[in-house]
Specification:
- The protein has 171 residues and is an alpha+beta fold.
- The protein has two domains: 108 residues, no CATH class; 57 residues, CRO Repressor.
- Helix content is 61%, strand content 11%.
- It has a four-stranded antiparallel beta sheet with strand order 2-1-3-4.
- The chain is elongated and about 80 Å long.
Length: 171
């Protein structure tokens, strides 16, 4: 047995690498969780700040899939190290798509969506509201929260942004 194998064997046992997921102990799952947490923090820092801030569907889907994949490394249903490596590959792919979207407005609209005008010159745009399942009451609530106002007639334009937030421009 070489030195590498002598050093690696206790680590494999300690982390439950290669073990049946049903046999993992509390300590093994906890250590895996800590390791995945550290690597996930690095991955998210490498991806983009907006992934956790005001995200688009593109960013939300990325985070859900990344979390799902990395959870498998914690519970042992996938090997720890290859799964973490796969997470880094997903981060790189997300960055690549975001980079392409930065240089291609059409591609950005395809993967991130487009903004929709919900109020134009104080008038509700019912077709866009219906398409996005936004009621008059939803608009009034967002108006109260954003501008502390209630009169939709004071609004020159309201947009449903790509992030899902509604922005208002007063007359």
């Amino acid at each position: 047995m070489n030195l590498w194998q002598e050093l690696w064997t206790p680590v494999r046992i300690f982390l439950g690498l290669g073990a049946d997921p049903r046999t993992l102990t509390f300590v093994q799952v906890s250590l895996r969780g800590i390791i995945v947490f550290i690597f996930t923090l690095i991955m998210v820092r490498l991806s983009a700040r907006r992934s956790l801030a005001r995200r688009t569907v593109f960013d939300s889907v990325f985070l859900v899939i990344l979390a799902s994949v990395l959870a498998r490394a914690i519970n042992g249903s996938s090997d720890l190290l290859p799964t973490i490596g796969g997470g880094f590959a997903m981060v790189a792919f997300h960055r690549l798509l975001a980079w392409i979207a930065f240089y291609s407005h059409r591609f950005g609209n395809l993967i991130k969506g487009t903004a929709e005008i919900l109020i134009h010159d104080g008038e509700l745009v019912y077709r866009k509201m219906c398409n996005n399942h936004i009621t008059r009451h939803d608009l009034q609530e967002d108006l109260r929260l954003a501008l502390h106002a209630e009169d939709l007639a004071r609004i020159r334009m309201a947009r449903l942004e790509r992030s899902g937030d509604i922005s208002f421009v007063c007359k």
